[in-house]
Amino acid sequence: MTHYLEPTQQSAMALFGRGIVGPVVMLNLLRFRDVADYSAHPDLKPAAPISGAQAFDLYVAETMPHLLESGGELLFMGAGDAFFIGPAEERWDRAMLIRQSSVEAFIAFASNEAYLTAAIGHRTAALEDSRLLPLTPLP
């Protein structure tokens, strides 16, 4: 099974190629590891093992100041589970909607060095799989 944790160069080019003008809402679907894996970011590793959900909560706490500073906002975060309509074998532990004023503001936020240093390692440790779908308002 393929897991998706980071964008590809092709997906980034496709996002810019859409020519989105104005706000964008990012739909995040998240599946957590049972135990967070800090092997890629040992400097952020807590003293005792924590769950992927707990690591993601650390990520959110570290991320919020950077998100707000970039003009973004958390519109919704909620617990998930199995689909009501969808594949029976597929589940998502959490869903989030993040609004940014533009694609450019989103990219500036996502490439901010302070955010990358303080927060992204918790996300990496937390997630088993994810999806990120940019949404635009209909006229």
Descriptive report:
With 139 residues, this protein is α+β, with helices and mostly antiparallel strands. It has one domain (21-135): Alpha-Beta Plaits, CATH 3.30.70.100. Helices cover 35% and strands 23% of the residues. The chain has helices at 9-17, 52-69, 103-110, 113-118, 120-126; strands at residues 24-32, 73-79, 94-100, 127-135. Strands 2-3-1-4 form a four-stranded antiparallel sheet. The protein starts with 8 loop residues before the first helix and ends with a strand. The mean pLDDT is 95.
CATH class: Alpha Beta
Query: SS-based structural class?
Result: alpha+beta
Q: Could you report the average pLDDT, rounded to the nearest whole number?
A: 95
Which stretches of 5+ consecutive residues score pLDDT under 50?
Answer: none
Number of DSSP helices? Answer: 5
Query: What is the strand tally?
Result: 4
The major pleated sheet works out as: 4 strands, antiparallel
Strand content: 15-25%
The coarse overall form would be globular
Can you tell me the number of structural domains? 1
- Helix percentage range: 25-40%
H/E element sequence: HEHEEHHHE
CATH fold name, please? Alpha-Beta Plaits
Report how far apart the termini are. Answer: 37 Å
- What does the radius of gyration come to? 15 Å
Strand order of the largest sheet: 2-3-1-4
Q: What's the multimeric state?
A: single chain
CATH-scheme architecture:
2-Layer Sandwich
